[in-house]
Design brief:
This protein is of the alpha+beta class and about 325 residues long. It has two domains: about 1-120, Phosphorylase Kinase, domain 1 (2-Layer Sandwich); about 125-320, Aminoglycoside 3'-phosphotransferase, Chain: A, domain 2 (Alpha-Beta Complex), CATH 3.90.1200.10. It has nine helices and nine strands. The protein has helices at about 5-15, 65-85, 130-145, 170-175, 180-190, 230-240, 245-265, 270-295, 305-320, and strands at about 15-25, 30-40, 45-50, 100-105, 110-115, 200, 210, 215-220, 225-230. The strands form three sheets. The protein has a five-stranded antiparallel sheet, with helices on both faces. The protein has a two-stranded antiparallel ribbon with strand order 6-9. It is globular, with a radius of gyration of 20 Å.
Length: about 325
């Protein structure tokens, strides 16, 4: 951590000193790290610092180290700072996020000081979930989507998510599934042209939800937040925590639960029309991520028979042969 960043941390927290630090995780492709910083003399015992300092020599776990990939990552951190400093304060307890204490960007370096969710009651991370856990996360997503319904994503990604077609030309180029490749643009346009748009988290996987002992959740990691259809988050989340059999078995009741929560959270919106449109787009959102995954990592465990069936149905509806 640079001296200037240490000074900002002490100033923004009112701490007299830094007592200790621990690495929570290294950022993807060696772009920095997330640390928990323990404080002395502050109102809070600790904060979380996201310190982004891109490497001089870029590396990627799966070999994707192009300049396009680098620029996408840099923009993602600028977007995350914009989210925390300009948007996040609108999130209530129903879609809890960390409070931002301070943030800045300097050329290609980004620094964020965030509330430590562990310290305020969200210490649990889960690798597997109960049905109730899934329900609570879907309620978080529904409240989040309702909060930002029909908002223009100023300062954020025009189209949220890290896998959408415009930002993934290299993965499309190597996609071996000829039919899916032919239908990729039509799937993307179907999602882009949805009447009802909101802000989507853009990386709403299980690992980005923090659980409280009483089952409540908060969410982190807003690098890919932007405009879009809420089904982008819902499909991606369910695919992150349910196996193929569970996806097949629980698809309809889980969508029912999400839309019930969305109806409760929405204000002046035609919720019948919203639900009708987004239910149809669930399959398109699933197929869109499937397209990315098959190009990015053809042997990935998430490429299942369930995903292939959904994708085939979507391509049939689009008339792609």
């Amino acid at each position: 951590m640079k001296k200037a960043d240490e000074a900002l941390l002490l100033q923004s927290t009112g701490a007299s000193a830094i007592r200790g630090r621990e690495v929570i995780q290294e950022l993807w492709s060696g772009y920095g790290r997330i640390e928990r910083v323990y404080l002395e003399g502050a109102k809070v015992p600790s904060v979380v610092v996201k310190d982004v300092q891109p490497p001089g020599q870029r590396r990627h776990p799966r070999g994707w180290s192009s300049d396009l990939s680098h620029q996408r990552k840099l923009k993602s951190y600028a977007v995350e700072i914009a989210w925390y400093t300009q948007w996040s304060s609108r999130c209530g307890e129903g879609c809890r996020v960390p409070r931002c204490l301070a943030a800045h960007d300097d050329a290609d370096e980004f620094f964020m000081i965030l509330e430590d969710l562990d310290a305020v009651g969200y210490p649990l991370r889960k690798n597997s979930v109960s049905l109730e856990d899934v329900h609570v996360c879907l309620e978080w997503l529904a409240t989040f989507h309702a909060t930002f319904m029909n908002e223009k994503p100023t300062g954020l990604w025009t189209q949220g998510s890290y896998w959408h077609l415009e930002t993934r030309p290299d993965e499309l180029e190597v996609l071996a599934d000829a039919r899916l490749k032919a239908g990729a643009s039509a799937i993307d346009q179907k999602l882009r042209n949805a009447r009802f748009q909101t802000l989507v988290h853009g990386d709403a996987k299980l690992a980005n939800f923090c659980f409280a002992e009483d089952g409540a959740v908060a969410a982190v990691d807003f690098q890919y937040i932007g405009g879009g259809c809420g089904m982008v988050d819902v499909a991606y989340f369910l695919g992150s925590c349910l196996d193929e059999e569970a996806c097949e078995k629980w698809e309809v009741p889980l969508l029912d639960h999400y839309f019930e929560a969305l109806r409760s959270a929405c204000g002046e919106v035609d919720v019948d029309a919203l639900e009708e449109e987004w239910r149809e787009l669930y399959a398109f959102a699933w197929a869109d991520f499937h397209r990315f995954l098959k190009g990015w990592s053809p042997g990935h465990w998430k490429i299942t028979g369930y995903s292939e069936r959904i994708c085939a149905q979507v391509l049939d509806r689009l008339g792609v042969s």
